[in-house]
Amino acid sequence: MRTIFHRSRSWKSALHGIAVLGLWVVALLPLMASAQSVIINEFMAANQTGIDDENGDGSDWIELRNASGAAVNLAGWTLTDTAAVPAMWAFPAVNLPANGYLVVFASGKNRAVAGRELHTNFKLSSSGEYLGLFPPGSAVPASEFAPVFPQQVTDVSYGLETVGQTLSLLALRAPCQYLVPISGALGTTWTDPDFTPAGWTTGSSGLGFEITSSGFSGLIKSTPAMFSVNASCLMRFPFTVDNPDQLTNLRLRLHYDDGFVMWLNGVLVASRNAPATLTWKSTATASNPNASAIQGEDFNLSSFQGQLRPGTNVLAIQGMNQSSGGFDFLTLPVLDATQITGASNRAVYFIQPTPGQPNAIGAAQLGPVLTAVANSPAVPTDTQDLFVTARASAALSPVASVSLKYRVMFAAEVTVPMLDDGAHGDGAAGDGVYGAA
User: Fold this and answer.
1) Burial class (CB in 10 A: 0-12, 13-18, 19+), 243
2) Cis peptide before 206 (omega within 30 of 0)
3) Do 306 and 289 meet the contact criterion of CB atoms below 8 Å apart?
4) How far apart are the C-alpha atoms of 212 and 101, rounded to whole Å?
5) Which of 260, 264, 249 lies closest to 297 in space, CA to CA?
6) DSSP string computed for 206-224
7) Helices assigned H by DSSP within 251-398
8) pLDDT band (50, 70, 90) for residue 373
9) How confident is the model at residue 346 (pLDDT cuts 50, 70, 90)?
């Protein structure tokens, strides 16, 4: 169970496939004291484009985590940014559930009403300062960043490193149910986790066929009767989660040809080459090259972890060919997560902040922040250059250089410099966007 008071925005996804070489700074990590079950798990001291408070302000925030198996009443607990004044701001009578999370805005607005959004009477300094959590009437912190936390970066959070292990939720040959629809009678009801797929065919992933050799044969396990019937196939992949609160870093690799729309427990999470208006017989709007389908595409679904529930969950996919007469088809999802086994006392930076959820994967040393990653054209021909661009923003040190590493299938890795000179598909020279072909 999670407790969080805010309206959330989507965080930018992590960059895949581009390695950045920059100037790195080694920070002296703060001493963490966390003898109590309630700890300061994560905070952001320079919130610009993250979550907003109830006034629409991008206030800084502090996330608490109850690491115990029992609820804790926070009445009388205090937060402070001054070690000599433990009782700087006091919590009202708010229950923090077992293994739950609570976000408090460090806005200086001083609001402490149970059941309402909480705001401390102090703000956080991005240049670094003390931050502590104290039990009622105690001068001994339950959790603290002391003597000060290090310099912070806009829209990058900081907190305790997650200790965990990889957990496979959907393996290569996971069981599934599928249907080649003959009408639109189902609408999107079939994406609901509680939907009963009566009359659907039971099989194993991946689903597909090849009339001509496409290289998919090693990935195909079940063959839906789509050819010359329908360009679309509906698929349900059930999987079990014991405790969603113990999972983080939800990630999917999807092998697909040619397009898809995907839902997690009925919530739309991703699509590729899909029409704006989806019907039961939709066709893919573009081709996904066979080589790309075999390699698969990675999706970070961590922002949708809140949709997971204890017990049976369902990843629902409508796979699409470019036409009902397409000579090949493939849909094969592989879903993993990190199962939290604890939290270390090591503090790290998080490029992907997760207020109200388990911490993502962090880094003790923070390099440049990469955003606005794109490529053009979306699907190049064999004779076209593929331009890759990314905005590289300085974090703790200036950006020294940016490099792109790529390989074609199993060939050797190639490294090329990415330049901000206006001549590599990067837009205007000196605008912070780097490009390479």
Assistant:
1) exposed
2) yes
3) no
4) 53
5) 260
6) PEEEESS--S-TTT--B--
7) 290-295
8) confident
9) confident
13-50 confidence digits (pLDDT tens)? 332 222 222 222 223 333 333 335 899 999 999 999 99
Which strand (E) or helix (H) includes residue 22? none
For the question of whether the overall pTM of this predicted structure is more than 0.85, the answer is no
What token pair was written down for 113?
A: 């009403």
Pairing of strands 207-210, 267-272: unpaired
DSSP state of 119: B
* 202 neighbors 177 (Cβ within 8 angstroms): yes
Helix, strand, coil percentages for the chain (3-state, nearest 5): 5, 40, 55
Tokens of 333: 């999802």
248 close to 360: Cβ distance less than 8 angstroms:
yes
Q: Among 287, 247, 288, which residue's Cα sits nearest to residue 264?
A: 247
Closest residue by Cα to residue 106 from 70, 35, 158: 158
Tokens of 150: 């290090």
The two three-digit tokens of residue 23, written as one number: 């100037």
Q: C-alpha angle with apex 298: 376 to 367, nearest 5 degrees?
A: 75
